[in-house]
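Sanity check

After download, print the first record. It should look like this:
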Amino acid sequence: MSRLPHRRWTRLCQGLGAAGVGLLLASAFTPLPTVLGRALGGDSPQLEPAEAIVVLGTELRPDGTLTNTSLRRTIHGILLFRQGLAPILVFLGPPRAGGRRAEAEVRAELARELGVAREAVLTDAQAWTTREEAERVWALLGPRSLRRILLVTEAQHIPRARAVFERAGFTVLAAPADGLGIIGPDPEARLRLMRDVLEEWLARLYYRAAGYL
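Expected structure tokens:
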């Protein structure tokens, strides 16, 4: 009798291990990440005139340069600005842990190099979560009576970010910087997408439980 719980535990561990390997293989070599990404939902682009373009933060590389995701969001925001869709461009993003430069500052520097006037760019490097970003952007734009914003982030992040920013007082137009969970046949890219999708699912569950949505 004393061996029965041990056997059950062993079988459970073996089952979990097999499931983990199966999920890894399915994530790398099947369309599963794309399917789950689409299941997250996402708002269609609403590229209309607004009062500000808000580019949400993500992260910097260890050397202080923008990651692919951060660069994609940044360039998308700059292109929207160059199209004349809003007169103000807001970049968010804190420093990497132990780093000297903030993501928002690196983005603003790139925007200036690409011809965006310094006075058209606002930055904030204090927010670490989507909820904090909404609060910080309200502190920047609220006193200027700017309410209608184009929100730049990934498509799967748009629904949660939109809800948080609307709750802060903004009218939000979706400006996703990518397709909705669409990705090529590269296994490494699929694994990155699966990681992002799982993180977004967990974030939504937490935000709902905490009453932020």
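If your output differs, re-run the checksum step. Summary of this record's structure: The helical segments are 3-29, 32-39, 68-82, 103-113, 130-141, 158-168, 187-210.
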